[in-house]
């Protein structure tokens, strides 16, 4: 897509100004193609990075990125500016599509050969499936922290919430994931319990 003069938001965690979500959304609803270009310039690399991390495949990441932005263009009302940032929404959609693509590929392989998936692949798929099941506020916070490389302070700013609320969402999300991945809640001080405080 053609370059634009606006500031973009890189994946490296530096802070520059993204296009304003509400204005972009309004223009997308009215069919302004330049709005899609601006959204892609600002967030395309993030969506691709999330999809690549989930799938481990550059080709799948490119396919998922294409599908996510086609969805933004054809169904702009799927994104609601009042419920979170466009960056978080696109990141989550990229994550969901990549998980679905990995499952599809595994199902196709399963019909061709009856071999069990590698334990590491199985664990990774389970982790991303659990992420997709988190409540939206917690999922947004976790995506910004773990996939976009934001600190809890940056998460708070981008979601428009207090730092304590951002910390609470992250801790809650990590606690749920730890419980899903390890079974019964881990005792305080155990490695699993300590993992809840890390991303």
From TrEMBL:
Transmembrane segments: none annotated. Residues 40-106 form the RNA polymerase sigma-70 region domain. Keywords: Sigma factor, Transcription, Transcription regulation. GO terms for biological process: DNA-templated transcription initiation. The keyword Oxidoreductase does not apply. Residues 126-174 form the RNA polymerase sigma factor 70 region 4 type domain. GO terms for molecular function: DNA binding; sigma factor activity. InterPro entries: RNA_pol_sigma-70-like (IPR039425), RNA_pol_sigma-70_dom (IPR014284), RNA_pol_sigma70_r2 (IPR007627), RNA_pol_sigma70_r4_t2 (IPR013249), RNA_pol_sigma_r2 (IPR013325), RNA_pol_sigma_r3/r4-like (IPR013324), WH-like_DNA-bd_sf (IPR036388). The keyword Transcription regulation applies. Belongs to the sigma-70 factor family. ECF subfamily. This is Sigma-70 family RNA polymerase sigma factor. The lineage of its organism: Bacteria, Bacillati, Actinomycetota, Actinomycetes, Kitasatosporales.
């Amino acid at each position: 897509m053609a370059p634009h003069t606006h500031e973009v938001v890189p994946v490296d965690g530096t802070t520059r100004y993204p296009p304003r979500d509400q204005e972009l959304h309004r223009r997308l609803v009215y069919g302004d193609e330049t709005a899609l270009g601006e959204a892609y310039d600002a967030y395309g690399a993030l969506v691709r990075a999330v999809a690549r991390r989930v799938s481990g495949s550059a080709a799948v990441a490119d396919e998922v990125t294409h599908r996510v932005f086609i969805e933004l263009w054809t169904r702009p009302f799927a994104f609601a500016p009042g419920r979170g940032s466009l960056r978080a929404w696109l990141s989550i959609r990229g994550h969901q599509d990549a998980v679905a693509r990995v499952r599809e590929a595994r199902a196709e392989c399963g019909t061709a050969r009856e071999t069990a998936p590698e334990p590491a692949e199985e664990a990774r798929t389970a982790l991303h499936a659990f992420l997709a099941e988190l409540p939206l506020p917690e999922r947004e916070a976790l995506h910004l922290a773990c996939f976009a490389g934001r600190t809890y302070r940056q998460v708070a700013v981008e979601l428009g919430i207090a730092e304590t609320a951002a910390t609470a969402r992250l801790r809650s999300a990590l606690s749920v994931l730890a419980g899903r991945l390890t079974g019964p809640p881990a005792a305080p001080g155990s490695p699993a319990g300590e993992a809840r405080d890390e991303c």
